[in-house]
Specification:
It contains eight helices and 14 strands. It is of the alpha+beta class and 351 residues long. The structure holds (3R)-3-hydroxy-3-methyl-5-(phosphonooxy)pentanoic acid.
Length: 351
């Protein structure tokens, strides 16, 4: 029953990496060892509302349930980045006309914040929601604090600190995470709005928590896989081909390089000690099915993250056909066609 004095809310969409981010060169700033590139996904998103509350403690409510422990700590640390920014840059009120101008901006960052999130990632999708979650939170906090001087590009560096892949959810379409030299220029750029005949189909085989989270899985791979230096080099070459394919709107070129990248992504983990194995027998069946569709003439290609689920990239015009085929071949899977998604946007209050 805390009194709400000021409010902002945003929606951000999830993304699937065509070229994977897997390894940090700086663990506290979350700077990557290589560049990655993703497609923002329309049907999977998080809505997040933030408001100032009376009291000393920040609160985090996820899908109606009050959170404590690590989830709350991650959200609190994330808000801390904005607080730190505000205390370093003085008043937020330099942005005349913002919702907070006229208030005592100097003290805003000392106030407790309530974060309320709803994941619209179909539970059966089994897709990580941390990307859409931290992108939505970053977008909403920029509004709440009236930090309209922070560009989307700069905001992506904030999102990055919540979860690396969240940086790419600050833009729609095809998005690249620039390597950069440090915190300020390791940001996201949109390479293409993906408003052409390209889309994806998610084939979700399991909603179970993955056995090794991305944070520890990455560190383990970097530290123990003899293939790691090769992964970095190969990934750079794969990325160039994907970018070329996007420029040419050539789904076959994009798909081929994307598949080559995901194969190496899993191979570098097979070579870790002990090995990390995210692919299951079921994943392989789906992959082989995608290959057989391709042999029959459908331009579809697969990728996977650090889990058993498979995502097919195909022309948007083939999405429903591929989805129908997958549903009949794998009735136990949740199959979700996913067109390219937009950048985050402010949304009105819900509740
Ligand atoms: O954002 P994180 O720390 O959950 O890492 C995501 C890693 C992958 O999803 C496996 C790859 C990627 O680039 O999204």
């Amino acid at each position: 029953g805390a009194e709400m004095t000021d409010f902002a809310a945003a929606r951000a969409h999830a993304n699937i990496a065509l070229i994977k981010y897997w390894g940090k060169r700086d663990a506290s700033l979350i700077l990557p060892t290589s560049e990655s590139l993703s497609l923002t996904l329309d049907p999977l998103y998080t809505d997040t509302a933030v408001s100032f509350i009376d009291g000393a403690e920040d609160q985090f409510i996820l899908d109606g349930a009050e959170q404590g422990g690590t989830p709350l700590e991650r959200v609190r640390a994330f808000i801390g980045l904005f607080r730190q920014y505000m205390s370093a840059h003085g008043k937020a009120g330099s942005t005349a006309g913002s919702e907070v101008s006229g208030r005592d901006c100097d003290s805003l960052y000392t106030r407790a914040v309530r974060v309320e999130s709803h994941n619209h990632v179909p539970t059966a999708a089994g897709m990580a929601s941390s990307a859409s979650a931290f992108a939505a939170l970053a977008w909403a906090l920029r509004d709440l604090y009236g930090l309209h001087g922070i560009s989307d590009r700069q905001l992506s560096t904030f999102a990055r600190r919540g979860s690396g892949s969240a940086l790419r959810s600050i833009f729609g379409g095809f998005v690249k995470w620039k390597y950069g030299t440090g915190d300020n220029d390791s940001y996201a750029i949109q390479v293409d709005d993906a408003q052409w005949d390209v889309g994806a189909v998610i084939i979700a085989l399991s909603t179970k928590q993955k056995k090794t989270g991305s944070r520890s899985g990455m560190a383990h791979t970097v530290n123990t896989s003899a293939f790691y230096p090769l992964w970095r080099e190969a990934s750079e070459a794969d990325l160039k081909l994907v970018e070329e394919g996007i420029r040419e709107r050539d789904i076959n070129k994009i798909g081929k390089a994307m598949e080559a990248n995901v194969m190496k992504f899993h191979a570098v983990m097979f070579a870790a000690d002990p090995p990390l194995t995210y692919m299951t027998a079921e994943s392989w069946k789906v992959i082989e099915h995608i290959w057989s569709l391709r042999e029959q003439g459908a331009p579809c290609y697969f990728t996977m993250d650090a889990g058993p689920n498979v995502v097919a990239l195909c022309p948007r015009s083939h999405m429903d056909q591929v989805a129908a085929d997958m549903r009949s071949a794998f009735p136990q899977a949740a199959v979700i066609p996913a067109a390219s998604g937009p950048a985050p946007e402010g949304i009105p209050a819900h509740e």
